[in-house]
Amino acid sequence: MTNDHPESPPRSGSEARPRPGSETRSRSGDGPPAPPRPGDGPPAAPRSASEPPTLTKSPFDSETFTSATFVTVGRGPDLALATVWILARAGMLLLLVRDDLGIGGVGREVGLYQYWYGQFAAGTFPPGDAMWQYPPGAGLVVMAPGLLLPWLTYFKAFVALTLLADAVVTLALARADSARLTHGAWIWVCGLPLLLHLPLARYDVQTTALAVLALLALGARPAAAHRLGGALAGIGALVKVWPALALIGTPRGRTTREAWTAAAVTALVLLAALALFFSESLGFLRQQGSRGIQIESLGGTALAVARATGAWSGGVGFRYGAFEYVGPYVSTLGHLALLFTVLAFGWLLLWRLQARRWTPATPLDAALAAVLLFTVTSRVISPQYMIWLIGLAAVCLTSRDTVMRPVALLLLPAAALSSLAYPVLYADVVDGTPVGLAVMVLRNGLLLAAALLAARRLWTSTAAPDAE
């Protein structure tokens, strides 16, 4: 297949540090505490009677959920994280070598990349190729295996670079996690294998790495880091467009100016360089504009349900490298999807104008919400799109201020269902059997719920008048 909360308030200084010579009563009130032993630090401060309980409103917002429900990433569990990464990726590699799950042939996409690499070697983007639907920066990723690892076969070199990008994302997330009670690195390490071996045969891991590193750089203090984050987002936008949304939540003022300017300059310079050395650099626009309704999109699921109930008489055809629905009302539904995409973009602009409260997690949360909205309104939802969403959810969960924990949890079963849809039960999805239809309804229902929940939580945490 081709293509595509509230936490306990800090105690005051008088509560946190008892005055010298003062005695501390036991909580039970049964008598004075045992005398301190030599070398012991100051006694722990008692919980204030006015302090709210640890678990508030929802388990997703609580400190208990954050630190106890998931493995905490720090110096101790680094070895565990590395061990799980190695074992999980070894399993993914084994599945890729066999490549016989469901309809099989997941690795054939890399063969297509190799064919395009030959086109780039001749100095041109794939001319008139309906399968080439990517921005010109994608050519750099396609060329990288042959240029950087020429002693390997193209397939082995591509997989090796994908694993390298995966490892870079893991290390970056683990470093961001190290000083906090968060679990972003674990979401990435354990969430990616839910897509089976597909991530190793698509270049979306590399694209996600650019977005993840951009968001982490934007959270740093130096202005140079903001410019670096913008540059990475600009490169990502030329590779697969969506990483540009990583900048939607940058704080107003200097950070936004630095990041957005760096993104625009980097993208323009890279685009000019590619146009100078290769012909047909913008040919992808012709192919992308002609796309229909892919069977795995939300619109495709609506048509599948209508087809199963006899309300729609269309069918399935292979066009532009994917299975799409063909028949009456497909064009109308495609225009409706574009309208919803425009409305989603308008909502994001309205949110940015109305947002009044920024936390360190706001740029991360906004990026996840934006990509979710654009995913569910797209005419195409390929299974590799889940790589983007898992990566962005992992970045969100490196911050204790994030409001996207329940959204991240919804994405995990959605990723598992995506693997059932492709490649395991893809024949059922194409044929519209009850099993295939059920998988798609559940997967797309989870994605729609995650998008709406992400938008609601982003708005209420930053723009709603009654938000705290």
TrEMBL record:
This is Glycosyltransferase 87 family protein. InterPro entries: GT87. Coiled coil: none annotated. It is a multi-pass membrane protein. Residues 1-28 have a biased composition (Basic and acidic residues). The keyword Repeat does not apply. It holds the Pfam family GT87. It is found in: Cell membrane. The chain crosses the membrane at residues 151-173, 185-201, 231-248, 260-278, 332-351, 407-425, 437-455. Belongs to the glycosyltransferase 87 family. Its main location: membrane. Keywords: Cell membrane, Membrane, Transferase, Transmembrane, Transmembrane helix. It comes from Streptomyces litmocidini. Residues 1-61 are annotated as: Disordered. Residues 32-45 have a biased composition (Pro residues).
